[in-house]
Amino acid sequence: MRSIWNGAISFGLVSIPIKLVNATESHSISFRQIHTEDGGRIRYRKVCELDDREVTQSEIGKGYEDADGTIIPITDEDLSHLPLPTAKTIEIVAFVPADRIDPLQMDAAYYLAAGGAPAAKPYTLLREALKRSQKVAIAKYALRGRERLGMLRVVDDAIALHGLLWPDEVRAPEGLAPDTKVTVNDKELDLADALMDTLGEIDLDDLHDEYREALEEVVAAKAAGEAPPEAPEPAKGGKVLDLMAALEKSVRDAKEARGEEAAPEESAEVRQLPARKSARATPKQAGGKKSTSTAKKTAAKKTTAAAKKTTAKSAQGAKKTASAGSTTKKAAKKTTAAKKTAAKKTAARKRTA
Fold it and tell me: 337 or 33: which carries more pLDDT confidence?
């Protein structure tokens, strides 16, 4: 990595030569301004207002504009004579616990590399002292024409420098908190804690810039003469009318996203939490009772109808049986009468003979 500043760390009477390198890099996609009619590049040229001509970078210097509009030229030589001990030195002024630093003060980050073999011993000494004390060093340094505040801490086996904003550069959050008086109960806090526990932790290395990836797909499609990919439809979200219901649903969704299922006792416990009654609750209960009553009546009717059919069939069977018996008796009577008639005829013939 290329160094952007060379100097030394002042640690009491110990001086540690170091090189300053950027600890971060930007992966964002940058665009050029073009003329929409013909695609020509739009460029900004540096023109002197007095000469009305374009000037080169070597002809450009610094100047301070006074209150009356007068420009006071300031040269690099003027800046080199500033009465600052931090012009080429990172001067450590204190050692404090890391939690004393407000994250709002954090600015750019740099790595400090040892400047040659002679710096290896004092560099390692400062690094190990920071590790053992579990503190960070507060320092002053000058960079890009101004004195800055910084924090030195250990990252792996290197010393990192975090630029800090001066305390008067951080705004106070006045007037930003809600003016409305709101009361948060313990059950709502319990649900919020449950949601936090369900979401759990994440490895920051797994996070990536999805916007940049989507933008690269659009650029690649346009370069290939293809239609850019269509954006997915945003999820439809309704109004959150009940904070408890929203928290409960968030917990369930988070568990489903992690492939977990809520235990029955957990679901029952969530349902028992007080929530704002919905206007649809009463009709649903009434509808449920009506359905049960209707089902019972229907079942009773079916049972009665089946009993009636069974009785009717039994009656029909009895009638058929009775009819069959009557027919059998009539046949028997006819047979007896025929026998008597035949007997009488036979007796008459004998008499005649």
Answer: 33
